[in-house]
Known about the structure:
This protein is of the alpha+beta class and 186 residues long. The protein has helices at residues 33-52, 83-92, 134-144, 150-161, and strands at residues 4-8, 18-23, 26-31, 64-72, 102-111, 117-124, 169-172, 175-178.
Amino acid sequence: MKEIKIVLPIPVSNNNYLYPKVMGKYARLAETAKSKKWKAEATKIIKKELKKNNWKTAERGIFLDITIDYFFNKKGMDPNNYLKPLYDVMESWGVYVNDDMCKPQTGIVVIDKFNPRIEVNITKSQQIGAFKNHIHRVNFISEYEFMFNQRKFNSIMKKLDDNRLTEETYYKNNELLMKNIETIGE
């Protein structure tokens, strides 16, 4: 997996993505016609780019940094309203296994009434589980492995590698730390 850039038409907004469809006494969410049309167009482009770039689906546990540059056709459009449809279509076509591993970042937001679009840049993140990168993980192990027996520390590391904080760990000032052993369980 490497970096990939996909240029797409502006997605439908979250407000126009789904609607409640009543079926007897039950209701479920269904896609709007506008959403289906956008997904069909986006699907063609995504499939072509994945094939051209020989993209391998990002497996679970691999974080992706996704930077989206917005080139809207008018003022007043909120970039946050366009993520869900985009992430759903990218997941359905194998950009990644699950969008919970995506770390969205808004790049530039400008008005381009002549060529409205979004430019999606996807790269493998350096994040490993709850760690910022490999060096951060190695430093954490060096600093804290002596605090617990091997079995307990391995259990803590398994959870941290699965992106989950434990009773013994916490983040403070952007730093992953270990609580004092005496305070655990209080």
